[in-house]
Amino acid sequence: MLQISNLALSALKNLLNEGYRNAMLLTVWGLLRIEDKIIKNYAFVWTSNYIRTFDGFDSSKALGLYLTLIRGLESLSQGDYEIGALIKKALNILIPYWDTRAKTTTASNANSWIDWSLKAVHE
Fold this sequence. Notes:
The chain has helices spanning 2-11, 18-31, 37-53, 59-74, 81-104, 112-122. It is mainly α. It is globular.
């Protein structure tokens, strides 16, 4: 279901009203807290796509999601190939988003994602 709604997210961007989008986001946001690694990481991909597709998402929550993904890559075990692929897919969606956001934002913290990435790598 997450995969299908992820595909439909960008295709139906103009047809989804704000109430329906928020209901979808709250449902998937709850999936980020479950123990099943596969579903959790599909939810990360969905949420990353939501952030990229719809403007106005809270940047602190988006940064928190990005940092969780970076830290998730570090904690992978040897056999977690599918989970690693899902994390990389979510990061491949979010990194261009941050680059575009930094170009359109004049705030001093526009490149904070780069600073946090460096901190996560050094930890």
